[in-house]
Amino acid sequence: MFLGDSLTAGLGLPAELSYPSLIGSRLNERGLDFEVVNAGVSGDTSAGGVRRLDWSLEGDVKVLIVALGGNDGLRGLPTADMQKNLAAILDRAKARNLVVILAGMEAPPNNGAEYAEAFRQVYVDLARSYDVRLIPFLLQGVAGEASLNQADGIHPNARGAATVADLVWKELEPVLPRPTTPSQ
Amino acid sequence: MRFVVLMAAREMRASWKRLLFFFICIAIGVGAIVALRSVIQNVRQTFAGEARSLIAADATINSNQAITPEVAATLERRLREAGAESHRAAELPTMTRVADRPGGRARMVELRAVERGFPYYGQLKLADGQAYDHELLRNFGVLVRPELLVQLEVKVGDVLSIGSQRFTIRGVIQSEPGRQMGAFTIGPRVFVDLADLEKTGLLTFGSRAARQRLLKVPADRLDTLVADLRADFANEFVRVRSYKNAEDAIGEDFERSENYLALVGLVIVILGGIGVSSVTRVFVQQKMKSIAVLKCVGARSAQLLAIYVAQVVVLGFAGSLLGLLLALAATQAIPLYVPNSTGVEIAYAVTMPAVVQGLGIGMLVSLLFSLVPLLDVRHVKPSLLLRDEARTRRPDAVQIVVTLAVVGGLVGLTIWQAGSLRIGGIVAGGFAATAIVLHVAGSLLIRAIRPLSRSTSFALRHAVLQLSRPGSQMRIVLLAVGLGSFFIIGVRSLQENLIGQFGDRMTADSPDMFLLDVQRDQVEPVRGVMAQYLPPGAVTPPLIPVLRARVVGVEGREVSLDNYEDVRGRGSLGREYTITYRSTLAANERILQGQMWDDTPSKTAEVSIEQSISERFKINIGDTMRFDVLGRAVAATVTSVRFVEWSESRAGGFMFVFRPGALEQAPHAFIGFLKGPADVETRARMQSALVAVAPNVSVIDGREIIDAIKTVIDNVTLAVTVVGTLVVFSGLMILIGAVAMTKFRRVYEAAIFKTLGATRGLIASVLVLEYGLLGVLAGTIGAGGAIGLTWAVSRYALDIPFTPLIGLSTAGVVITTVIVAIIGVVSSWEVLQRKPLATLRAE
Predict the structure, then answer these.
(1) Looking at beta carbons, which residues of chain A come within 8 Å of B208?
(2) Are both B266 and B236 inside the same structural domain?
(3) pLDDT of A107 higher than 70
């Protein structure tokens, strides 16, 4: 289950080219029986994410990838509020014993170094205190590269989404719950 | 030669009264053309100025990424070639806080950084009459909007930190030119110097800064430069915009007004032409008697032609000159009568092209309508003329050649003035077609009233016969008055439709504040804040639930066939849609098929789809659509197809509207559109209060932009109204002239009637009926034609919805009738008073 914003929803891309869908096909290729649920909502903030978690978590969710905060950063929302919202999501995931990966974002530099630093720190602190895996920056290597983004300069294009999928896969693969083998 | 001159001079002396009238009519026609064309050119210049101040330049080059060296090199080369000046600017959202106030809250602002030379057009207005100068920004100065002062509790002179630098507040912005219309603004505006911005560290890799180059280009190079740059940068992240582009609603309004003015300009030429032509015709027909007499005593055809053409030319030229003076006086008088409430100066002055066109039309039209009938003289036997026998003869080669030459001259003049062969051709063709249609309509109408000629009332019988008699001059007048009222009513209705369209876009209660991302648990607190700040008794604006969803299938068809390009465009069904639920239709919607649900919620999902979705993807009532709503599948039955008037979507428009009941449990946010408090400080406090109860809510203030649009629309409306009123006024004058001219024909006829024993009262009632009938016919032709014209122009030239204006059309018919009847009778008053014997002798 990917809980995210437009980057996760694949804004401007056909549904099958969004990075969660790419991960889904990779799971299939490896014969792993997982279904990928894309709970990415364009324009959503961490405040929206915490409020729709229950709706999206219905069903037998095993792994939760939290990829929120991009819009908080774009709009310059207070980092303390974002920390509170993300913490609430992690709390609930913990209560359900889900495997969680927290995907971090960067605030754009135009909001100032001070804000960008505080923003980055939110993810680091949360990953440490909840002991979850952290992808420090979901758009690592993609953000700011014209050739990997759509014309708006924010959303990855098909190639950019593939790069994001690689990055997420690296963190996801080791923690996938393996079906118990008969020998054990 | 001497004979010609002497004869012409004698004629003028003998019938100076008649000639004076002819002279004045030409002056009015030419005056109307010159005055209106001048005013239109003045207004256009003002429009161009306003349009430029909207982007603060002749053209701008925008990029949301740093400009690459290759792009920069091409750009510099093109600018050099075109002789353009330029300066740079940047725009970015950023955060600011009060320096030296620990723990103070940071606010989002929209920062604009400019260089010396900004703006090329328009004015950056500061509060308290402070004048803007780039020095105010230099060396870490900042200008801010008043909202920010309230939100941060600071004043001029305080220091703000932006990025890694400290800026001193040196002034308060009242309004600024070059605001991107419709741009997403999430905070108050602040201005700094571009050189200072570069030192703040806010422009590093990945910064969401838009860079702009403002250009000032010599007028004749602008279009080429913009086209070249667009071609150069077709594949780059660079957008080139000229002030002439209709990229947004306001640009479209400009373009529409331009088209309207161009149209009116051509109409007035035709109106003026009609005025001149109808008086010339009548004038020449009056002269036929004298010509016959001169022929009897041995004058040659060439001499006769020379005498009368000389008269027409002299009078036409003198009349045109008087027209110029009238136009001059009119343009001087306009500013005295038009209230200038918007503060935009329109310099009213007569322009050279208008003068040339006015003179040209005056001379050519009077020549056309005098020379061609006068050429008949060559074949006319004096006896025929003296016996007053109506005679029709095929025009010979000379007449055809002369007609073609003069018509060619007129068309050429129109084409030259319209600045395009196509438009000139359309106007000339359109005019000819209109004349033919109106002529046919006139004949049909005359035939329709013919039964009245068997009426028992002598006056009515006679009036009808006057109109329907073969060779009656009244038909020509009917055509002229019909055409005239056609254009007047047409221009007037277009004006109403156009201004109505502007009004739709911007009414006093248009929302100017937008709330995004209000969460469900924040709805009540947000409503509380709204109620507190809105005027007591005002209805609290609704918060509209919005969800994001993708369509994943329609009745088993998987919808993933869209290719990449489809998804990028808006044509795809698979893209993310914003959906809502509600129990009623919005004001700008109506049901095309199916039925809207009642207000009871339903657990099974029902959806109403927008017309274009139904048409493009062939989805009909009863189909089941499957949606992916936040990762869950929702299947909904299509129960209705809606039409949405997008241009009036003041509260958002939705492709998919759901019946309440199915989606409430899905997590979703709300958006709100409201009209905020008028006072800047109260607005700022309201925004702070909203953010305090719901920190994640973004409050977008559209006030400044809406104010700017409003000013522009007010100016455009004013200009359109001034021009429209002038058309009506001068059109009336022209028509009055054309009708009054017919009185000379009455003189002889009235004398005969009187001799035969008719009373003045009887003759007067014949006149009233005759002119009244003429007015009704002409008005009907005009109003009918005007409805057709307005429809076609609204639809094809101005691209606005057409509303038939029944009241206006009816008023047009009534006013035409009344005016024609009054003028007919009043101008013939003298005829009624005259003793018949004197008249008969004189004739």
Answers:
(1) 74, 108, 110, 153-154
(2) no
(3) yes
B537 Cβ contact partners less than 8 Å away, ≥ 6 residues apart: none
* B74-116 confidence digits (pLDDT tens): 899 999 999 999 999 998 889 898 988 877 778 888 899 999 9
A180 within domain boundaries = no
Q: H or E stretch including B640? A: strand B632-644
Which is nearest to B140 in space by CA: B169, B174, B101? B169
Chain B positions in Cβ-Cβ contact with residue A13 (cut-off 8 Å): 564, 567
Which of B702, B734, B758 is where one domain is finished? B702
Please tell me whether residues B799 and B723 are part of one structural domain: yes
| In the predicted structure, residue B569 carries a pLDDT above the cut 50 | no
Instruction: Using CB atoms, pick whichever of B64, B164, B519 lies closest to residue A47.
Output: B519
Establish if A183 belongs to a structural domain: no
Question: Are residues B669 and A48, on separate chains, in Cβ contact within 8 Å?
Answer: yes
Buried b (16+ CB within 10 A) or exposed e, B306-328: bbbbbbbbebbbebbebbbebbb
- Report the distance separating Cα B537 and Cα B232, nearest Å: 57
What pLDDT is recorded for position B418? Answer: 64
Note whether B603 and B728 are same-domain residues.
Answer: no
B696 touching A, CB under 8 A?
yes
Residue with tokens 């002056």: B27
Number of domain units in chain B: 3
> A106 contacts in B (CB within 8 Å)?
206
Give B628 to chain A, closest Cα distance, Å.
9
Do residues B785 and B835 share a domain?
A: yes
Q: How far apart, in whole angstroms, are the C-alpha atoms of residue B696 and residue B792?
A: 50
Q: Residue A181 domain-assigned? A: no
Q: Name the pairing type of β-strands B632-644 and B698-701.
A: unpaired
Catalytic residue check, A54: no
The pLDDT of residue A3: 92
Kindly state whether residue A76 falls inside one of the protein's structural domains: yes
What are B605-618's pLDDT values in tens digits? 899 998 888 887 78
Tell me how many domains chain A contains: 1
Peptide bond preceding B119 in cis form (omega within 30 of 0): yes
* pLDDT tens column, B726-744: 777 777 777 677 677 666 6
Range of the domain at A140: 2-175
Determine whether the interchain pair A51/B205 forms a contact, defined as Cβ–Cβ distance below 8 Å. no
Domain encompassing residue B92: 55-249
The pair of three-digit structure tokens given for residue A50, joined into one six-digit string? 């915490």
H-assigned helices in B191-350:
194-197, 219-232, 249-296, 301-337
Residues from chain A contacting residue B698 (CB–CB below 8 Å): 75
Query: Dihedral of the CA atoms B185, B191, B195, B199 (nearest 10)?
Result: -70
The answer to whether B668 contacts chain A (CB < 8 Å) is: yes
The answer to whether residue A6 is catalytic is: yes
Distance separating alpha carbons of residues B503 and B497, to the nearest angstrom: 10
Last residue of a domain, one of B644, B669, B702: B702
ipTM of the complex: 0.80
**CATH value at residue A82:** 3.40.50.1110
Q: Which two tokens stand for residue A171?
A: 């963190």
Which DSSP category does B156 fall into? T
Q: Are B122 and B28 in a shared domain?
A: no
